[in-house]
Design brief:
By secondary structure, the chain is α+β, with helices and mostly antiparallel strands. The protein has one domain. It is 24% helix and 28% strand. It contains two helices and five strands; from the N terminus they run E-H-E-E-H-E-E. The protein has a five-stranded antiparallel beta sheet.
Length: 124
């Protein structure tokens, strides 16, 4: 099964479209199933006031190992280069495995992502 994470990304509609175009370009001709693109919506997608939040739950998020995940990271790099704001949040299976980063003027996004940890009671 492997280690799984939940991943959400918030950006502008322009940023999302740029990521889709970039992933379509770098995935073309590869024997892979892109996580997103013009013809493929991510597992989670919400749009509000010119901003988009999208992502995946229960995904093996191994950058550098899985090309589809690496392609998403590369597309985020395009947003960095063009100064398009985004927020990236990944929460792994371990309670302390949280990755959160922002880029650009993210405070002006209409919707945001942020990590949240809950306390659960479990029987032994």
């Amino acid at each position: 099964m492997g280690y799984r994470s939940a991943v959400k990304i918030a950006t502008t509609r322009e940023g999302y479209d740029l990521m889709c175009d970039r992933i379509d370009f770098i995935s073309e001709g590869l024997d892979s199933y892109p996580l997103m693109g013009r013809e493929r919506k991510p597992d989670f997608f919400d749009e509000e006031n010119g901003c988009v939040v999208f992502g995946w739950d229960d995904i093996k998020w191994y950058v550098g190992l899985l090309c589809d995940v690496t392609n998403v990271q590369e597309a985020l790099g395009e947003l960095d280069e063009q100064k398009i704001p985004y927020e990236f949040c990944r929460i792994g299976e371990s309670w302390d495995d949280i990755e959160f980063r922002t880029s650009g003027d993210n405070e002006n996004l209409a919707i945001h992502v942020e990590p949240s940890v809950a306390i659960e009671v479990v029987s032994s």
